[in-house]
Each structure stands twice: as structure tokens, then as C-alpha cells.
Amino acid sequence: MSPDADPTAELEPREVFDRVGGLPAFERLVAAFYDRVERDEVLRPMYPEDLEPGKQHLALFLAQYWGGGDVYDRLRGHPRLRRRHAPFPITPEAAGRWARHMAAAVREQGFDPAAEALVLAYVERATPTLVNQRPDQAQVLPPGLAVLPQQPPGHGSGSSA
Ligand code: HEM
């Protein structure tokens, strides 16, 4: 594949925030994602009864990650996502559900293609790092988790070993 064929090549990660429409766009994404979490019998029990604070935190985190300032850090401190997720039993199956719900919510948003591709790649890359029930496999995508087409060998995103 030539570098020109990469849909993300034209966009810096920090530009995603403006490209998708700022914080309201991340709030809509998170609302669509939580609609799915609410109906998921594996994920819903991990979340507290009141979903609203978590929605706000996730939207602010994503906004910050994609270039929208540091409101999350100021409100919540350094993300330390693995530590924050330690209380939840994140099996490969749970992570796969999370990733698929988030990928579906992203695809619903009508983001421009470069921004969508970056966000989907992030979901695919970051979700397995939060698996904490099978530490030996924390960096390995379980079968069926993949939300993107396979990368060609040597693309640099982890090993298959
Ligand atoms: C790319 C992957 C993920 C990202 C970026 C992410 C991000 C976040 C953030 C930013 C928060 C809020 C932290 C805070 O309170 O400040 C959070 C909370 C949470 N996450 Fe994740 N997460 C990811 C994957 C997962 C997975 C795989 C699960 C479970 C299968 C999960 C379950 C939860 C739960 C239960 C909460 C607590 C929500 C609440 O207190 O209302 N997350 N996550």
C-alpha cells in the first residue's frame, strides 16, 4: 500500500477535535456508545447505576485525547486508564464488546473519513491494553475483536506472537 492510500495521512491526531465538531461531537458519540452499553448484559453490570458522570468523563477524555485542550486532566487528573479500569473485570470478551460498541457508535457519527479512521484505529489499539483478566494476552486482540481490516504485515502495530 502506498502512503497516499492511507486515509489518516492528511490529518494530525490533534486536529481531530476540530474536524469532527468539538466537544458536542464527542458527547454525541459517547451517548450513542452508552446506548449500546445499556443493552449489553456483560458490560452494563460493570457500570454504576448512574451513567451520567461516566459519560461526561469519557467525552472529556476523548475530546482531550483528540486535541481539545486539557479539561479532562484538570477535572479528573492524569487519565491512567489501566489503573482506572483495574476494578472492572475486563476479559477479552468484554473488551471486544466495548470495542465493537464504540466502533459502531463512531461509524454512526458521520465523521469525515480521515477522522473516523483515526478514531477507529485508536479504539482497536487501545481497548486490548485494558484487558486485565488475562494479563499474558493484554496486548493481543482476541478473535473477533478487530474492528478494522487486517493491516499488511510489517505495519508496526504489534506482533502476532
Ligand atoms: C479504548 C478503550 C477505553 C477507553 C479510552 C476508556 C476510557 C474511559 C474513561 C476516560 C473513563 C472515565 C474515567 C474517569 O472516571 O475519569 C472510563 C470509565 C469506565 N470504563 Fe473505560 N475505557 C476504555 C475501555 C473500557 C473497557 C474495555 C471497559 C469494560 C469492558 C471499560 C469500562 C469502564 C467502566 C465500567 C468505567 C466506569 C464508568 C463510571 O464510573 O461511570 N472501559 N473509561
Question: What does this protein structure show overall?
Answer:
By secondary structure, the chain is an all-alpha fold. The chain has one domain: Globin-like (Orthogonal Bundle). The protein contains seven helices and no strands. Helix 2 crosses helix 3, helix 2 packs across helix 6 and helix 6 runs antiparallel to helix 7. It is globular and about 40 Å long. The site of protoporphyrin IX containing FE has 22 residues, from helix 3, helix 5, helix 6 and helix 7. Protoporphyrin IX containing FE binds at residues 43, 46-48, 53-54, 57-58, 61, 76, 81, 84-85, 88, 90, 94-95, 98, 123, 126-127, 130.
Q: How would you describe this structure in keywords?
A:
binds protoporphyrin IX containing FE, mainly alpha, Globin-like, disordered C terminus, single chain
Quick summary:
It is built from seven helices and no strands. By secondary structure, it is mainly alpha-helical.
Q: Helices and strands, in N-to-C order?
A: HHHHHHH
In the CATH scheme, what's the topology name? Globin-like
Give the overall silhouette.
globular
User: Which CATH C-level class is it?
Assistant: Mainly Alpha
Number of domains: 1
Mean pLDDT: 88
Bound molecules: protoporphyrin IX containing FE
Main sheet attributes: strand count, strand direction, barrel closure: none
What's the alpha carbon Rg, rounded to whole Å? Answer: 16 Å
Count every helix, treating DSSP H or I runs of 4 or more residues as helices: 7
In CATH, the architecture is Orthogonal Bundle
Helix amount: 40-55%
Kindly report the name of the CATH homologous superfamily: Globins
Indicate the proportion of strand residues. Answer: under 5%
Total beta-strand segments: 0
Kindly report how far apart the N and C termini lie. Answer: 23 Å
Q: Which spans of ≥5 residues are poorly predicted at pLDDT below 50? A: 156-161
SS-based structural class? mainly alpha
